[in-house]
Amino acid sequence: MENPKVKCSVDNCSYWEEGNNCVAETIMIEINAHAHAELPEGTRDEQYDSHHTDHAAGVKDTCCHTFKERVH
After folding, report:
1. What is the 3-state secondary structure (H, E, C) of the chain?
2. Where are the domains of the chain?
3. What pTM was computed for the model?
4. Which InterPro entries does this chain map to (predicted)?
């Protein structure tokens, strides 16, 4: 199965490409309640915590933890 296209408007992320496309190999989505949790920054070979599940009432309850600031 081909990976879905992920759109992102955060242009200072190293995984951002022209056209607001995310090229990270793994996308980690969390609920906002975990926004301040100690999570690793996204890297292509990083293992993410997938041993828990949460419930989000809607899209506004989630945040994306694959952001990695692009160094210019």
Report:
1. CCCCCEECCCCCECCEECCCEECCCCCCEEEHHHCCCCCCCCCCCCCCCCCCCCCCCCHHHEEECCCCECCC
2. 27-71
3. 0.61
4. DUF1540 (IPR011437)
